[in-house]
Amino acid sequence: MKIYRLIVGAENGFQANVDMPPIDMAKRDMYSSYPFDSIDWIRLTLEKKAKITDVLSISGVSLDGIIIREYFSDLISNYNLKDIQFVKIIDDELIGYNFMFFNSDLTHHIDYEKSDFILVEDILGDITELDTIVPANREGVIQAYKENCIESIFLKLVAKNGYHFKEGFNIWDYDVFRIGHFDDSFYVSERVKDILTEQKITGVRFYEESDFNTQP
Description:
Elements: E1 3-8, E2 16-18, H1 23-26, E3 38-39, E4 42-44, E5 55-56, E6 58-59, E7 65-69, H2 70-76, E8 84-89, E9 97-102, H3 112-115, E10 117-123, E11 126-129, H4 138-148, E12 155-159, E13 176-177, E14 186-189, H5 190-198, E15 204-208
Parallel strand pairs: 2-6, 3-8
Antiparallel strand pairs: 1-14, 1-15, 2-4, 5-7, 7-9, 8-9, 10-11, 10-12, 13-14
C-alpha cells in the first residue's frame, strides 16, 4: 500500500475566493472542528474560458482544506478519515459543493529520533542539506519550522529516514489525513487515490509520497 500527496490542480487558476469570512475563521485553530454547519463566504470566480471542476482551487484559504463536489465526499465517506470535516457551501453558483477541512494533527505520534528531521534548501528540485541542527523532538522540529520555513519558499524540513511513528500508532490505518504544523500537505491512501481516479474526479492530482516508505 502506498500513500499519495493530494494536490489541487492549477490549470484553471483560482476558481473560487473568500468573501468576508467571519472573524472566527481568521482566529480558528486548524486542529479543531469548524464550529458551523455551513459556509456562506466562498464565491465562484472562474476566469475566462476556465472550466469548473470537482475540486476547486481557492485563494485566501490555504492550509485548512479544499473545495470539493459532494460526490467526492460521498466517494470517500466510508474510508478511514482522520479528523476530516465536510461543511456545506451556501452559494447559488456553488450548489453541491462542500469545504473539506483537514483538522488532523499527527505530530504527537512521530518518532523523531528515527525520522531524523533535517533542514534542506529546495530550489526547483536542486536539494541541499543545510547544517542547521534540528532537535529530535516535536517541540524542536516545530520551532525549527517556525524559525526557518514559514517565510521561505525554498527552505523546508524533511524526515531524512522517512516518517517513523511511535509504537502503537499505525499510519496505514488511515486513508485521509494531514501531519500538521511542519507538514501541511494533504495525504490519501492508495485506496482513496484509486477510487477518485477511477471515478474521474477532476481538478486534483496525486503524487506518490516517498516519506511514507517505512511500512512495518
